[in-house]
């Protein structure tokens, strides 16, 4: 069987899983990238490569070349994709065994939340953008504030924001919820409070002013660009980055994060305020409870590190050392010897 035909059979078999378009596209990219390298290893055209070409030796060489030009996370995702694909081939009797066990892979990097730095940074960001800090040809602070709010108080991913429609806001005033379709087509409902309701209402009013002749269908995208079309992924990322820059807060955004830093800030604050892993999992749409637990553990580590960095600790350490030296001089024994002596006394406390 040709390798490309086996891959199409793999995607056909996955259709009942209702993978999101983003997941399917990522799987196709991972399969296509390694398939091209396999074809080069065997010196044949991609269309002519047979499934037997996906053997351990060729895959090892292909993944080695792939790793030379891709990040660790990309290599790990490609390894997982190929492992699933070849496991399917074994189950279907297309291959006698899965060779991926012979292919090294990077270790799964631990989750490292990347919230905005600085206790009051989210509030400063919202105030600055609401006041029109972001400069543009046609400023639209109502939309900018809504995008930031969706990240900071509902924890939405970029793709989830773009999939929101007018119908996504459900319920009566004061009891509204946001209906979200997340990764793997998993759906969740997030309660929204009065302040976010008002942000949404102001944004919709601004849409009616900007596009007076456009009929707002309930199935239409909630977030739109300057032409009234659904906002694109790149435009959404640029919007958030420029909000940080114009607000003068770009130095408080962790490296490698922009829009996702808003989601991490939401999750971190939940953990700091006492939410348990199940509550975080439900609100953020995590597939695994372990992912949600990581936010709680990371928050604990960061709190301890912050406490340890307190300048007064250095002064306290100096005082303790000076006291120990003084006691040692007066008793004629070292601090450690003095401690041992006290430990041996029955009345020592």
UniProtKB/TrEMBL annotation:
Q: Among its keywords, does the record have Transferase?
A: no
Organism for this UniProt entry: Actinoalloteichus caeruleus DSM 43889
**PROSITE patterns linked to this entry:** CB, TYR_RECOMBINASE
What is the designated name of this protein?
Site-specific recombinase XerD
Alphabetized, the UniProt keywords read: DNA recombination, DNA-binding
**Which residue numbers delimit the Tyr recombinase domain?**
111-308
Q: Pfam families this protein is in? A: Phage_integrase
Where would I find the Core-binding (CB) domain in this sequence? Answer: 1-90
Q: Where is this region: Disordered?
A: 101-120, 323-349
The domain of life for this entry's organism is: Bacteria
Q: What is the lineage of its organism?
A: Bacteria, Bacillati, Actinomycetota, Actinomycetes, Pseudonocardiales
């Amino acid at each position: 069987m040709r390798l490309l035909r086996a891959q199409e059979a793999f995607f056909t078999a996955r259709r009942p899983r209702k993978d999101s378009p983003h997941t399917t596209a990522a799987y196709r990219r991972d399969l296509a990238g390694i398939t091209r390298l396999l074809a080069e290893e065997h010196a044949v055209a991609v269309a002519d490569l047979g499934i037997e070409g996906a053997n351990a030796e060729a895959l090892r060489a292909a993944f080695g070349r792939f790793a030379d030009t891709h990040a660790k996370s990309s290599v790990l995702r490609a390894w997982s994709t190929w492992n699933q694909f070849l496991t399917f081939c074994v189950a279907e009797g297309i291959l006698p065994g899965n060779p991926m066990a012979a292919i090294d892979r990077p270790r799964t990097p631990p989750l490292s939340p990347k919230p905005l730095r600085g206790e009051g940074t989210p509030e400063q960001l919202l105030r600055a953008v609401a006041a029109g800090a972001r400069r543009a040809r046609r400023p639209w602070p109502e939309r900018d504030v809504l995008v930031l709010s969706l990240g900071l108080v509902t924890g939405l991913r970029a793709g989830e924001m773009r999939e929101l429609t007018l119908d996504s806001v459900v319920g009566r005033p004061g009891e509204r919820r946001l209906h979200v379709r997340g990764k793997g087509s998993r759906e969740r409902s997030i309660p929204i409070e009065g302040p976010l309701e008002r942000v949404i209402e102001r944004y919709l009013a601004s849409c009616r002013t900007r596009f007076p002749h456009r009929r707002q269908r309930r199935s239409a995208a909630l977030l739109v660009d300057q032409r009234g079309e659904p906002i694109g992924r790149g435009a959404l990322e640029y919007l958030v980055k420029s909000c940080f820059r114009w607000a003068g807060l770009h130095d408080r955004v962790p490296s490698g994060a922009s829009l996702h830093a808003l989601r991490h800030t939401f999750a971190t604050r939940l953990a700091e305020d006492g939410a348990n892993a199940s509550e975080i999992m439900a609100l953020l749409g995590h597939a695994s409870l372990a992912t949600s637990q990581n936010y709680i553990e990371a928050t604990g580590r960061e709190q301890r590190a912050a406490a340890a960095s307190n300048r007064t600790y250095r002064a306290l350490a100096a005082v303790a050392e000076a006291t120990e030296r003084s006691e040692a001089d007066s008793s004629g024994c070292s601090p450690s010897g003095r401690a041992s002596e006290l430990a041996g006394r029955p009345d020592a406390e």
